[in-house]
Description:
By secondary structure, this protein is mainly alpha-helical. The chain is built from 12 helices and 2 strands; from the N terminus they run αααααβαααααααβ.
Amino acid sequence: MTVFSAFKIVTVMLLWAACYPLLMIGIVFAPHLSFATLRAVIAGLVLVGIACALRRPFPRDAAVWATLVVMGLGGTSLGFLGMFHAAEFVSPGIATVIANTQPLLAAGLGGIILGERLSRRGKAGLFIGFLGIVGIAAPQLFSSGGDSYAIGIAYIVLAALGVTVSNVMIKKITGRVDLFMAMGLQFLIGSIPLALAAGIMEKAAEIQWSFTFIAVLLTLAVFGSALVYILWMSVLSDVPLNLANAFSFLIPVFGLTMGVLFYGETLGFLKLLGILLAIIGVVLVTRKGAAQEANAPAPLYIAPN
């Protein structure tokens, strides 16, 4: 992995860590599904607009379109549905922690679909990183309870499953379609089920178009969605999914750091230990922790026209 690739991955994780706190602010001003739809549509239009301005090719392959549909339904429809609803029931810190079961799910799917495997060191790194996540979450997990908390956890798991499927599909089409066009189209495709559900279950008139809401919406759409997914897809063009996903354990570290700096949160022994384990886990996986099956095709990268 190059230094530039590592920098892009860390940037992605930092932006993802900021999403849940912003969601907590935004859902006060808009119904969940309407908010999610707006975020997806804006992100999709921005990326497709850039692709058209740069005269990037429109996908023609039916197999690519089928993959884009799966990506949209997974990463955008299910991912946004889970994230936006979870923000009502679970604190941002817990949300980022539970969402980071995703690398473990991706490791399983990546092995089955992509032929990627983790070495013993990589498996140990994932396990240690997950222990770190548990350590970070433990104080709040044992102090929280109730049906609403369980509902929030279920939504986060749903989001993690959707994002996992989307990540595996991104890896499959990398090099076969332009990055901007692919990610923009999957956002627009994924926004359709969200829009239909919002039209049935919510009222658009309930959206409060305040300066705060517009600022949060644009930040999430442009930086937390469009920019993040372009960086992420470019990373997956030359980095194994398991290796890139290992950095997801940094998200709760960034989230807790933001809490300390901006929300006055304190870090106890378990959280500090969890941060240390998460960092150790990332180091183990990134230092020759990912291996690819010899008979699995290497991902092809074709420079955009």
